[in-house]
Predict the structure.
Amino acid sequence: MTSTQRDHVLGLIRDAAVGFEPTVRVTDCRDVKDNKYLELALAASATVIVASDRDLLVLHPWRGVRIIRPAGYLAL
């Protein structure tokens, strides 16, 4: 991929992205570094978290949010 192509793809992602600012602190994950993903899911009203991280996967379902592997998400 050329730098022009990369910049184009990143621009598409940036234009389509929606930002969320977590307002609720979460301490539910056994790996404290992963709590930020749970906080973001709450802020975004997510219904699914796609992850390969076992510390997140063991929480499935978490507060009504499905936590599934990438292959499981692609199979939906």
Summary: The helical segments are 3-16, 35-43, 54-57, 70-74.
